[in-house]
C-alpha cells in the first residue's frame, strides 16, 4: 500500500501543502496498515526486551523516534552525494553516531535509565526499522517527506511497544508507570482480597503473547492477510 | 557519476572526521555530568546496602549527597586490617579508591575502603559497616556492597550491580527481591570460621533455616557463582579488619 503512495509521490507538484493528504498518509500508514512491528515484523528484539515496564519503554520510544527522524533527515539531505557503493556503511555510521549521542545524553542526565536500558539503546543501531526506512525511503525522497515517514514509522513502533509494556507491567507487576494499581484495586475489596500478578508477563514470553494478541486483534479488524 | 574511488574515499574521510568530531565534542561536553552521575550512583549503591531501596529512590540527588555526607564515614584499610591514610605521599580517602583498579593488583597490595554507617552527627554510634565487593560475572565485571551489623557477622543488606550480565537471567542480581535474600544471613559458622554466604543452584527452595545459603537464580548459575566467589574473596580480604572490630566490640560489651 505504501509502495503505491511512494510512487505517486514522485510525480512532482509545485508547492505542495505543508500537510497534504499524501504527507498525512506518510505518518498514518505505518501506524496500522504498514506497522513496522505487527505487519513488517521488524524490531521485535527490543519490543520483547524493554517492555517489562512503562517508564523504560517510554524512554526507548523517544530514543527511537529521535534516531529514526534524525537519521532520515540527515541521509535524505545527503542522498545526492552519498556514493551508492558505500551507502550502507554511510547509513550505519550516521545511525551509530546518533545512537551514541542518545546513549551519552542518557548517561549524563538519566543514569538510572541508562543502566536499566543498558545494551538496548546501543541495539537501536541494529533495529531493522531504522535502516529499513533509510534504504526504502530517505535515499530517494526529500528531507521533509523523509522526516514525516520516519516519524510515522517510529510512532508505529512506539505505540505497539507502549501497549505491550502497559499490559506487561499491569499484569506482571500490578502497576502502571510504577503506580501500584493492583494494590489500590485490592484495597477497595477489603483486606482479604488480593489481585495476583503473573510472573509470565515479566519474562520475554509474556511479550510474545501480548504481541501475538495485538497482531490477532489488528488483523481481524483490518482483514490483512500475509502473502 | 560520483563513483570514482577518489570521490568515495574523500567522502568517507570527511564523513568520518565530521562524525568523530561530533562524538568527541559531546563526550567532552557531557563528561563532567556523567562523572557526577556515576559518583551519585555509587553513593546510592553504598546506601542501598543499609537503607531500603524505595527510600533512596524517593530522594533527590541533592538529598542523597546530604544524607551520604551526614551518615557515612569512611576509612581505608590494607589486607592486615590496618588503617591507611596516605600512600606514596598522597592522602588516601575511601571515595578516591577505585575498587576496579585495585582489583588488578595482587590482594596484598590493594587498598580496601570501609564505609561506616552511623547515626546522624555521631560517627562513633556505628550502625553498620559497608564493605565493597568486586569480581567477575559471566560476561563482565560484577560488583556491590555488603553491610555487616556491629556483631561483624550478620548481613544487614547487600547491593549488587553488573556491567553486562544477561538481562532477565544474570542481570537479576540487581533486583531488590534477590538482594533481600541475603538479609539476616551470617558469614561466620559456629566455630568462628569464615564461610561467607553461598547462592545455591536452582531456584524456588526455602533456605530460611540455613544461615549461610540463599536461593539461587534459575538460568544464571555462572553469575551466581561469580557472586559467591566475590563475596567469599572480599570478606576474606577484610577478615583481619572484621576480626579486629569483632574483638573490640566484644571488649566494649564487657
From TrEMBL, chain A:
Sequence intervals crossing the membrane: 58-77, 89-111, 117-134, 199-217
Coiled-coil residue windows: none
Catalytic activity: a ubiquinone + n Na(+)(in) + NADH + H(+) = a ubiquinol + n Na(+)(out) + NAD(+)
Keyword NAD: yes
Protein topology in the membrane: Multi-pass membrane protein
InterPro entries (alphabetical): NqrD, NqrDE/RnfAE
Biological processes, Gene Ontology terms: sodium ion transport
GO cellular component assignments: endomembrane system; plasma membrane
Molecular function, one GO term: oxidoreductase activity, acting on NAD(P)H, quinone or similar compound as acceptor
Top-level taxon of the source organism: Bacteria
Keywords in alphabetical order: Cell inner membrane, Cell membrane, Ion transport, Membrane, NAD, Sodium, Sodium transport, Translocase, Transmembrane, Transmembrane helix, Transport, Ubiquinone
E.C. number(s) listed in UniProt: 7.2.1.1
Localization: Cell membrane; Endomembrane system
Protein purpose: NQR complex catalyzes the reduction of ubiquinone-1 to ubiquinol by two successive reactions, coupled with the transport of Na(+) ions from the cytoplasm to the periplasm. NqrA to NqrE are probably involved in the second step, the conversion of ubisemiquinone to ubiquinol.
Similarity section: Belongs to the NqrDE/RnfAE family.
Record NCBIfam families: nqrD, PRK09292.1
Subunit structure as annotated in this protein's UniProt entry: Composed of six subunits; NqrA, NqrB, NqrC, NqrD, NqrE and NqrF.
Protein name: Na(+)-translocating NADH-quinone reductase subunit D
Lineage of the species this protein comes from: Bacteria, Pseudomonadati, Bacteroidota, Cytophagia, Cytophagales
From TrEMBL, chain B:
Record's bilayer topology term: Single-pass membrane protein
Domain FMN-binding: 137-238
InterPro entries: FMN-bd (IPR007329), NqrC (IPR010204)
Catalytic activity from the UniProt record: a ubiquinone + n Na(+)(in) + NADH + H(+) = a ubiquinol + n Na(+)(out) + NAD(+)
Modified residues (FMN phosphoryl threonine): 221
Statement: the UniProt record of this protein carries the keyword Heme: no
An example Gene Ontology molecular-function term: oxidoreductase activity, acting on NAD(P)H, quinone or similar compound as acceptor
Pfam family membership, one: FMN_bind
Transmembrane portions of the chain: 6-25
SMART domains: FMN_bind
Highest taxon of source: Bacteria
Compartments where located: Cell membrane
Entry GO CC: plasma membrane
Keywords recorded for this protein, A-Z: Cell inner membrane, Cell membrane, Flavoprotein, FMN, Ion transport, Membrane, NAD, Phosphoprotein, Sodium, Sodium transport, Translocase, Transmembrane, Transmembrane helix, Transport, Ubiquinone
Main localization (coarse): membrane
GO biological process: sodium ion transport
EC number of the protein: 7.2.1.1
Cofactor requirements of the protein: FMN
Entries under NCBIfam families matching the protein: nqrC (TIGR01938)
Quaternary structure and interacting proteins, as annotated: Composed of six subunits; NqrA, NqrB, NqrC, NqrD, NqrE and NqrF.
UniProt function note: NQR complex catalyzes the reduction of ubiquinone-1 to ubiquinol by two successive reactions, coupled with the transport of Na(+) ions from the cytoplasm to the periplasm. NqrA to NqrE are probably involved in the second step, the conversion of ubisemiquinone to ubiquinol.
Entry's family note: Belongs to the NqrC family.
Alphabetized HAMAP family for the sequence: NqrC (MF_00427)
Protein name per Swiss-Prot or TrEMBL: Na(+)-translocating NADH-quinone reductase subunit C
Origin species: Algoriphagus chordae
Annotated gene: nqrC
Amino acid at each position: 500500500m505504501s509502495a503505491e503512495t511512494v510512487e505517486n509521490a514522485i510525480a512532482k507538484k509545485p508547492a505542495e501543502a505543508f500537510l497534504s493528504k499524501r504527507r498525512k498518509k506518510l505518518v498514518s500508514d505505518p501506524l496500522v496498515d504498514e506497522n513496522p512491528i505487527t505487519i513488517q515484523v521488524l524490531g521485535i528484539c527490543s519490543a520483547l526486551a524493554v517492555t517489562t515496564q512503562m517508564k523504560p519503554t517510554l524512554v526507548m520510544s523517544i530514543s527511537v523516534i529521535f534516531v529514526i527522524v534524525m537519521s532520515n533527515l540527515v541521509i535524505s539531505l545527503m542522498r545526492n552525494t552519498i556514493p551508492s557503493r558505500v551507502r550502507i556503511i554511510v547509513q550505519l555510521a550516521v545511525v551509530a553516531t546518533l545512537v551514541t549521542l542518545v546513549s551519552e545524553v542518557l548517561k549524563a542526565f538519566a543514569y538510572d535509565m541508562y543502566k536499566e536500558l543498558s545494551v538496548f539503546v546501543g541495539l537501536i543501531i541494529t533495529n531493522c526499522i531504522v535502516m529499513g526506512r533509510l534504504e526504502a525511503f530517505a535515499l530517494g525522497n526529500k528531507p521533509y517527506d523523509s522526516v514525516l515517514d520516519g516519524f510515522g514509522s517510529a510512532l508505529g513502533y512506539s505505540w505497539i511497544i507502549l501497549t505491550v509494556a502497559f499490559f506487561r507491567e499491569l499484569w506482571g507487576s500490578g502497576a502502571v508507570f510504577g503506580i501500584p494499581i493492583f494494590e489500590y484495586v485490592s484495597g477497595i475489596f477489603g483486606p482479604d482480597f488480593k489481585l495476583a500478578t503473573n510472573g509470565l508477563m515479566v519474562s520475554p514470553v509474556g511479550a510474545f503473547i501480548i504481541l501475538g494478541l495485538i497482531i490477532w486483534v489488528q488483523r481481524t479488524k483490518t482483514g490483512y492477510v500475509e502473502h | 557519476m560520483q563513483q570514482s574511488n577518489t570521490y568515495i574515499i574523500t567522502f568517507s574521510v570527511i564523513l568520518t572526521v565530521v562524525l568523530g568530531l561530533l562524538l568527541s565534542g559531546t563526550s567532552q561536553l557531557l563528561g563532567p555530568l556523567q562523572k557526577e552521575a556515576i559518583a551519585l550512583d555509587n553513593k546510592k549503591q553504598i546506601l542501598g546496602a543499609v537503607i531500603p531501596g524505595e527510600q533512596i529512590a524517593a530522594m533527590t540527588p541533592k538529598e542523597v549527597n546530604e544524607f551520604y555526607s551526614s551518615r557515612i564515614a569512611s576509612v581505608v584499610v590494607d589486607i592486615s586490617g590496618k588503617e591507611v591514610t596516605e600512600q606514596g605521599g598522597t592522602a588516601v580517602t575511601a571515595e578516591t579508591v577505585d575498587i576496579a583498579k585495585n582489583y588488578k593488583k595482587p590482594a596484598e597490595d590493594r587498598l580496601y575502603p570501609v564505609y561506616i554507617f552511623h547515626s546522624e552527627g555521631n560517627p562513633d554510634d556505628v550502625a553498620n559497616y559497608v564493605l565493597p565487593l568486586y569480581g567477575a560475572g559471566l560476561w563482565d565485571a560484577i560488583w556491590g556492597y555488603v553491610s555487616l551489623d556491629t556483631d561483624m557477622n550478620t548481613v544487614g543488606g547487600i547491593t549488587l550491580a553488573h556491567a553486562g550480565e544477561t538481562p532477565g537471567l544474570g542481570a537479576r542480581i540487581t533486583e531488590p527481591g534477590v538482594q533481600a535474600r541475603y538479609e539476616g544471613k551470617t558469614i561466620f559458622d559456629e566455630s568462628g570460621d569464615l564461610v561467607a554466604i553461598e547462592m545455591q543452584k536452582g531456584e524456588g527452595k526455602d533456605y530460611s533455616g540455613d544461615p549461610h545459603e540463599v536461593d539461587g537464580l534459575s538460568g544464571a548459575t555462572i553469575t551466581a557463582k561469580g557472586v559467591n566467589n566475590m563475596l567469599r574473596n572480599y570478606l576474606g580480604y577484610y577478615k583481619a579488619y572484621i576480626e579486629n572490630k569483632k574483638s573490640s566490640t566484644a571488649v566494649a560489651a564487657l
